[in-house]
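Sanity check record (used in CI):
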Amino acid sequence: MRVPPLPADQWDDRTRAALRSLLPRERRHPDGAGPAMSALVRHPDLTEAFLSFGVYLLFRSSLPPRVRELAVLRVAHLSGCAYEWASHVEIAPRAGLTDDDIDGVRRGTLADPFEQTVLDAVRELREHSQLSDPVWAALGERLDEQQRMDLIFTIGGYGLMAMAFNTFGVQPKTGMHEAAPANDTHTDREQVV
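Expected output for AhpD family alkylhydroperoxidase:
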């Protein structure tokens, strides 16, 4: 692990304060914060700034929770981010995703045309750093302009988190769901990334 969790004896008021936008006071310690936040707090200023954005994406975005979770899981899968995948597989049922939906996200193929477009948006943004006109228009059939903007920032924000967690070596807590490797069998709708 390149950036291990901050040891308990090094946590201080500044470290705990960096987590206040995400975690209640009783969880602002190494065990309560979990492996990702305990690693991030090694840089409290960055943590505090980034978590404000992350909290917006997760709790205040205009995206419907189901759309958010489809996008986040696809980002996690394509990035091979075990921590992000495990965390959001836990969240996904509360957003209305079934095990079949999660398997479809992993494969890159969903039966619902709009939800498939969400997965296509993740792929396009990863490959080209922009959305094509057809995907933008198809998203507009169910999402307004602000929601589409939130979708782009959600995909980008979680992509950034996946890069950080993968680079730092953050792993899921014991007992969390395992991530499927990004290089598993893909359908012809996607490329190996």
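The chain is about 60% helix and 0% strand. If this sentence no longer matches the regenerated tokens, the check is flagged for review.
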